[in-house]
Predict the 3D structure of the following.
Amino acid sequence: MFIIFCIAFYNRFHVSPVLTQLGNQ
C-alpha cells in the first residue's frame, strides 16, 4: 500500500512539471 501511495504522490507532483516543459517547448 505504501508503495502505491509513493507512486501516486510522485506522479501528482511530477506530471504537471513535465507537461509544463512540453508546453513551453
